[in-house]
Amino acid sequence: MSFSEASMNSLRKAGDELADAVVATLFERGEVNTFNTLMRYVSTAGAPLPDGLPEVAREYLQVTSVPPAWVDWGEMEKARLFFIDNNVHISTALSFAAMPACYLVPHVAGLLSATHGLDYPSKRMAETGQFTVYLMQPDAFEAGSRFIPAAQKVRLLHASIRHHLKRGNHWNSARFGTPICQEDMIGGQMFFSLLVLDSLHRLGIHMSTEGAEAYYYAWRVVGAILGVDQNAVPRTLEEARQFLDLYLLRHMGPSDEGAHLTRQLIELYEEVVPGTFFDPIVSALIRYLIGDTCADWLQVPRTTWDSVVKVAPTLLGVLEGIEDRSPLGAWALDRLGHLTTILELSSLTRGRVMHYAIPEQLKKDYGVTGAVPRTRRWAPPAPTVAP
Fold first, then answer.
1. Residue 356: which of 2, 35, 15, 10 has the closest Cα?
2. DSSP track, 124-140
3. Whole-angstrom Cα distance, residue 145 to residue 178?
4. How far apart are CA 25 and CA 203, in angstroms?
5. Handedness of CA 26, 31, 34, 37 (dihedral sign)
6. What angle do CA 9, 27, 45 make, to 5 degrees?
7. Angle at 153 between CA 151 and CA 159, to 5 degrees
8. What angle do CA 143, 145, 150 make, to 5 degrees?
9. pLDDT for 119-158, tens place per residue?
10. Position 19 pLDDT exceeds 60
11. What is the distance between the terminal CA atoms of the chain, rounded to a whole angstrom?
12. How far apart are CA 357 and CA 369, in angstroms?
């Protein structure tokens, strides 16, 4: 599979026909509030749907209640073990690389700013973290899990944003195509998969090729469940590199919205870090993972910690050495990683299950009311464009 300006332009015109039709019907019939109220009771897969749920929503939930038939469950188990082995590192990469990367695409940053939820960055970070944790549970696709309902709601949330922005002159369709189009959805999938793996490599994490490929595969499955066209999505990490390089060259740049969202993100994690002495490490880690040019575009402050974080790969290498040499050390570090991830998530969610709802309006500013063996060490695919 190859990607070009023409193929990427065609992806900008497409949304998600199924979810878009459901949301349009809910708004036409004035059933959005009823849907949101009743969907608070739908949080686990296989649970009976509540009485009074709009019929179009009931049909959607039934059709999207099972994963794609092509899913390789062996690969999904490898991905789960990879996550367990690297959960803290993955959480770090999601928080300090993947999320800021979203803000490097000006039209995406502007779109994110259009939702009420981005006034409260902890909500979006909590939703992203909780979604990833749900995905990596051993029963993620079985009755009683929380992943499938969360994915169904996220897909409708995306459709509702498209609905609002396309209703009037609130989105430059001639310039940007469809809001949350297929190109942007695949781009987001690359941020949360390939870019996370890139960040782990930059941190010096020793990953196996099998583990990295399985983690990427899991996000391909997520993309399918969220309405990404599987005829367009990269199948391999090498194809993912080609797509991501071209996507960033097409769209990456500075914006006021991107800088504002990054400032909110930094302030959020400075609140999570105990005390104030270590606050600068938040900005330093973002700058280290996304690079100086991107960090300057997002107005990430330079700090005295910028040099300190560069020793992170060495420190992590020492910890990995302990893990490899000692079964007890491996168990202790895995448990510490698990607890750290849960505590971080708990601080963002305030101990609550996050609810994904269809917004009835956007911001008024827009005028819209067991571990995988560490063999065959993975290295990122080479860039596909000249520097």
1. 35
2. HHHHHHHHHHHHTSTTT
3. 32
4. 47
5. positive
6. 85
7. 105
8. 120
9. 555 556 566 667 777 777 778 888 788 888 889 988 998 9
10. yes
11. 23
12. 15
Tell me if the pTM is above 0.85: no
Amino acid letter at 209?
T
Residue type, 322: I
CA 178 centroid distance within chain: 20
Q: How many CB atoms lie within 10 A of CB 74?
A: 9
Q: Which of 33-37, 55-59, 291-295, 329-333 has the lowest mean pLDDT?
A: 329-333
In 10 A of CB 106, how many CB atoms? 18
**From CA 330, how far away is CA 326, in angstroms rounded?**
6
- By C-alpha distance, which of 195, 193, 167, 161 is closest to 180? 161
pLDDT in tens, 149-184: 889 988 998 998 888 888 766 788 888 899 999 999
Question: What letter does residue 377 receive in the DSSP assignment?
Answer: B
Per-position DSSP letters for 272-310, written without gaps between them: HSSSSTTTHHHHHHHHHHH-HHHHHHTTPPP-TTTTGGG
Confidence of residue 290 (pLDDT cuts 50, 70, 90): very high
* pLDDT(335) > 50: no
| CB contact set of 96 (below 8 Å; sequence gap of 6+) | 199, 269, 282, 285, 286, 289
Distance CA 247, CA 183 (A): 8
Give pLDDT tens digits for 22-51: 999 999 999 888 888 888 878 888 888 889
Q: How many residues does the chain have?
A: 387
343 pLDDT more than 50: no
The CA distances from residue 11 to 16, 184, 292, in Å, are 11, 8, 30
Q: At what angle do helices 32-39 and 17-28 cross, to 10 degrees?
A: 110
- What is d(CA 68, CA 210) in angstroms, rounded to the nearest whole number? 22
